[in-house]
Design goal:
Blueprint: E1 10-12, E2 15-17, E3 24-28, E4 35-40, H1 44-63, H2 66-82, H3 84-95, H4 99-121, E5 127-129, E6 133-139, E7 142-146, H5 154-165, E8 169-173, H6 180-192, E9 199-201, H7 206-215, E10 221-225, H8 228-240, E11 244-248, E12 254-257, H9 263-275, E13 287-291, H10 295-305, H11 321-336, E14 340-343, E15 355-358, H12 365-368, E16 375-381, H13 384-392, E17 396-397, E18 400-403, H14 406-414, E19 422-423, E20 437-438, E21 441-442, H15 447-451, E22 455-461
Parallel strand pairs: 7-8, 7-10, 8-9, 10-11, 12-13, 12-18, 13-16, 15-16, 18-19
Antiparallel strand pairs: 1-2, 3-4, 5-6, 6-22, 11-21, 14-15, 17-20
Bound molecules: NADP nicotinamide-adenine-dinucleotide phosphate (NAP) and magnesium ion.
The site of NADP nicotinamide-adenine-dinucleotide phosphate has 30 residues, from helix 7 and helix 8.
């Protein structure tokens, strides 16, 4: 272990300060298992300081004009843009993904999205006159944001900026596995000149911090992105004090290939989501449904397509030894339950090359549980209705895709019980509302729908 590394401070009340807690967490790089940073394992006192700071800042932040908030957000984005290379290096170190992927998909894409959001929000009205009543849109208050490690920058900015734009103040608790990227957010906030206290960064172990934040009487909302298991726990605690909750949770999304689909487009989209970021993407299309008559053709095309994804080139290791063990155990289970390995092998370390199972039944564990690794399952169907039924036969409902003749593909897409469905496209649109049906979550992020998760609506009833 590198004993020279200093323990990072927390960012509270507009300045960096040492934590009260003397405990710390080691940030381990999946690239070589070296310690790349030390962050405080915050105590209750630290959490209370952060909450107090957010509370103190709330009233005056609520009074600011939207134009001021937009202006600060623009400066925030500029800072991220000016430091893209350094941020990409941090993400590469703590998450393990290649630098190029970090730059493009972990930073540039989110910057574009934030810029687009600022365009959309300008002109947003916090007051509307309706027939017989007026609507006032109020900030919710102090919002705690708990984020995962797989997109360590974007998962933070897509909470913090909308929450601030709507007049709330925030406390961020990033994942302990990738907390270093969060310090770039603190830097960007600091440089953008946001008033002190509107953003606070505390680090620490999820179970301790989560409990303190979900129970805290001065926090009005918890927005959480992470696993369904932890999200359920956080939500139930938060609801005891009737906090607003927004939950972005796990997925097991389906990609449905219809007869007549553009095979290359369908397989590119599906494989990109499953193999880039080593499959550590909540919206990955991990179940590929193909007509039985096309099984051989799809298998052959997949064997070719998969040559475009390689660890050390455009893929990195999975984020932790734990993640490797999890992926390995799922691959073992897949084999035990009768699936066939079309591509890849049982992984032996965290540098996991693409794995594709075929002969998968939708009832098998690998088709039901989120693996969060580069593992794709091919499942055959005879009738399109069966494909829809199997796609929907999942506890999750986050994303999905349908490829095939336009009209038919659209009809199928309408029947999927998921928050997003891509229809004959491999491109992402900016600021489309994103979120889950069923166990994939509660609420939406992105776009106007995402912004409005961060407001209370008041009706003022007036004499007609
Ligand atoms: P996770 O284990 O659920 O952790 C998410 C966050 O919760 C981390 O900050 C974690 O802190 C914290 N946490 C852990 N235990 C907690 C507790 N008992 N109470 C409160 N907070 C707690 O998820 P992850 O492993 O970081 O991320 C992977 C999961 O996120 C996958 O399931 C993926 O599908 C999901 N995800 C969903 C979306 C979406 O938009 N729907 C996007 C990305 C990821 P520590 O790191 O300190 O434990
Ligand atoms: Mg976890």
């Amino acid at each position: 272990m590198n004993k020279q590394l200093p323990i990072k401070p927390l960012y509270i009340d507009g300045r960096y300060q040492q934590a009260h807690s003397t405990k710390h967490i080691e940030v381990i790089s999946p690239l070589d298992l070296s310690v790349v940073g030390l962050v405080p394992d915050s105590s209750e006192e630290d959490v209370n300081d952060a909450v107090q700071s957010a509370l103190d800042a709330l009233e005056s932040w609520k009074q600011t004009d939207l134009s001021t908030r937009i202006e600060k957000s623009e400066k925030f984005i500029e800072y991220l843009q000016d430091h893209q290379d350094e941020i990409a290096e941090t993400i590469h170190q703590e998450l393990g993904c290649p630098i190029e992927f970090a730059r493009e998909s972990q930073i540039a894409g989110y910057i574009k999205e934030l810029k687009d959001l600022l365009n959309r929000v300008s002109g947003y009205s916090f007051y509307e006159e309706k027939e017989g009543y007026h609507l006032q849109k109020d900030a919710i208050g102090v919002i705690a944001c708990i984020t995962p490690w797989n997109y360590p920058l974007g998962q933070i900015t897509k909470k913090i900026i909308p929450a601030l734009l709507m007049g709330n103040t925030t406390i961020l608790k990033p994942s302990s596995q990738t907390p270093l990227t969060a310090y770039w957010v603190a830097e960007a906030i600091d440089h953008a000149g946001f008033p002190k206290g509107v953003f606070n960064l505390i680090t620490g172990s999820g179970s301790t911090m989560g409990e303190l934040l979900s129970n805290h009487s001065d926090i009005n909302m918890i927005t959480f992105t992470g696993s369904t298991e932890v999200g359920t726990e956080v939500a139930s605690t938060a609801l005891k004090s009737m906090k607003r909750i927004a939950m972005e949770l796990g997925g097991k999304s389906a990609s449905i290939l219809l007869k007549g689909a553009d095979l290359d487009q369908a397989l590119t989209k599906t494989c990109d989501t499953v193999f880039f970021n080593s499959g550590q993407t909540c919206s990955a299309l991990t179940r590929l449904f193909v007509p039985t008559s096309m099984k051989k053709a799809v298998e052959n095309a997949l064997k070719e397509k998969v040559k475009g994804y390689k660890v050390g080139e455009n893929m990195g290791p999975v984020q932790s030894e734990n993640q490797f063990e999890t992926v390995k155990s799922y691959v073992d289970k897949g084999l035990k339950e009768g699936a066939t390995l079309l591509v890849g092998k049982v992984p032996t370390n965290r540098f996991i090359e693409p794995i594709i199972f075929t002969d998968v039944e939708n009832s098998m564990t690998i088709a039901r549980e989120e693996i969060f690794g580069p593992v794709l399952s091919v499942i055959t169907y005879d009738k399109v209705d069966e494909a829809i039924e199997m796609a929907n036969d999942s506890k999750y409902g986050l994303s999905g895709a349908v490829f095939g003749p336009e009209k038919e593909a659209f009809e199928v897409a309408k029947q999927l019980r998921t928050g997003n469905v891509f229809v004959n496209t491999k491109n992402k649109s900016l600021n489309v509302p994103f979120g889950g049906y069923k166990y994939s979550g509660i609420g939406r992020e992105n776009g106007l729908e995402g912004l409005e998760e961060f407001i209370e609506i008041k009706a003022l009833i007036v004499q007609e």
